[in-house]
Amino acid sequence: MPVVDLTVNFRISESAHLGRDLIKDLHAFSVETLKKPSKYMCVKINEHALMAFDGTFDPAFNLHITCLGVDVQQNKEIIAAYTKFLSEKFGLPGDRGYVRVVDPGRENIGPGFEEDARRYRHRECENQDTRNIM
User: Fold this and answer.
1) How many domains does the chain have?
2) What letter would DSSP give residue 127?
3) Where are the beta strands (DSSP E) in the chain?
């Protein structure tokens, strides 16, 4: 269920085709780095955001990664890998933004896929105390 949400304060590309290529690159990188199946990976790039960092409008970023099952040691490696990726892809210095990695806990995430949602609801019902259900 990883969600990779990148916001930058500059225009990434003049071409929609190039923008889609960047999404694909970030998706492939995320699958490899987070070691999660492509099927569940959601990647979003918000470009040209009104965002200042250190009081200036020089190129900056905010990357928020929501992913089940990451721990503190993995966070350090993930942050370093994404910072390097952003530097190589966009020329962004690592000191012009933040990478946040959050494990929301399985109980705080639900699938959007119909079949998976049914299994999820079924699993939740099995875990409930049936004495409280009317």
Assistant:
1) 1
2) H
3) 3-8, 42-46, 61-66, 97-102
